[in-house]
Amino acid sequence: MRVAICAIVRTAAFVLIAQASLAVAEPDADARTKAARVAAEGNAIGSPSGAGGDPQTSVAQPVFSAGRAAEVTTSFQPLLGAAGDPGGYRAFLESRGITFGLISVAETYRNLRGGLRRGSTGLTLLDLDVDVDLGTLVGWKGAAAHATVYQIQGSGTSRSRVGNLMTISEIEALPASRLSELWLEQSLFDDRLFLRVGQLSADTEYMVSQTSILFTNGTFGWPAIFAANMTDSGPAYPLSAPTVRLKYVPTREFSFQASLIDGTPGGGNPRSGIDPQRRNPNGTRFPLSDPPLAIAEVSYAYNARPGDVGRPGTVTLGGWYRFGRVDALVPDPVSGLGRRVAGDFGIYGVIDQTIYQEPDDPNDGASVFLRASASPGDRNLVNLYLDGGIAYRGLFRGRSDDTLGFGFGITHISPAARRLDAIAALQSTTPSPRRSAEILLEATYQAVLAPGIALQPTVQYVVHPGGGIANPRDSDGKRVRNAMVFGLRAITRY
Known about the structure:
Elements: H1 2-25, H2 27-41, H3 89-95, E1 98-115, E2 119-133, H4 134-138, E3 143-154, H5 157-162, E4 176-188, E5 193-200, H6 224-229, E6 241-248, E7 254-262, H7 276-279, E8 292-302, E9 313-327, E10 340-358, E11 361-374, E12 382-393, E13 403-413, H8 415-427, E14 437-450, E15 453-463, E16 481-493
Antiparallel strand pairs: 1-2, 1-16, 2-3, 3-4, 4-5, 5-6, 6-7, 7-8, 8-9, 9-10, 10-11, 11-12, 12-13, 13-14, 14-15, 15-16
């Protein structure tokens, strides 16, 4: 335990101290370098590089993220010189409208106390993204194509060590080589309307916070209420589903998007008890006959134009509906037997707000976020969800690309699920707890070591894992203890 903690602290401290020493030794050179960098960067606020495909309004949006909604463009290729593009193949493809990026995420987590059991886990993710401008390649004006492929190795901390709902790592998944996205998009009416068809992940565009993508816990991307209530945890990493998505952007500030998705990303029978990742092990099973899932949202980005008075921000409202019949948690009042009800749904809202921009560097400063969602409690494990936090990019001198953040998440167990717990406790010969809510706290620091290379230590504290489930290793039926987890993530992009 001490070795893991010391390794994380030493790594982060080394980066900060080295940069701070250079800045103190040459203050004038540092000021000139900063001025040149700010001039070269331009103003990120209002640019189209915001996570989720919206205008950037969060000054604290991190340089790197393993979240699928992030716009990660930095690469370590320039560090390699001529060896960065052997044979000039990458430049050749780019001249014909074909670009690609390869992101590697390697991380280790150690559960120091509580949870199901102590111990370490490791995960790696290779993410290959290919984009094709069909206008450049074949003269098809306004058309684009995209593909994403994953290679996942290792084991997850939530599944094997903690037993919580808000997944410790956003890249946790069963080992597999998997097709994630494969779609074709056509823009119309001077890039105001976009039609996208194919295999899509909803977590790349819906309920996205530009500030929250800094954090490593999965709930800050695809929230735990979606993962708990949607069939097969919804069309989100590592699963995708056949989708038709329409996005309308009448102005720079407003956007509306809606998707109609096959409601069972894993395909087959979701009531079989087989993990959906095993039912669709490589992402090449394209289910089309299941009851659909509809999701839609509207976003408004304000104070994002040059000269606007006030701090920039984005407000988003949305909702989803699952057609078909779903299992109710509340039994039939007459027969006492289980019953099925028509449909399921949820509503949500997101606020991303920049609260401070450094006067001499408009791309450094602090942003806050708040997200909330609700679903009916008679048919869902989770009926209420809330998360939020604050992040600061460029807090330390000479570390303009680094981002520090503190976040929290609350996942509330529905009253119907709690009543089932009470009934089970009365019928059981051994004590068993009644679930209430799971609470997550995370602190993280992303240190950008060079273009395309970052290191990110994180610490997470989980209160009542699983909402307060019984510990299967405790004969007295006591709850799983609160868990403390340390992690270290390395991200590189070519």
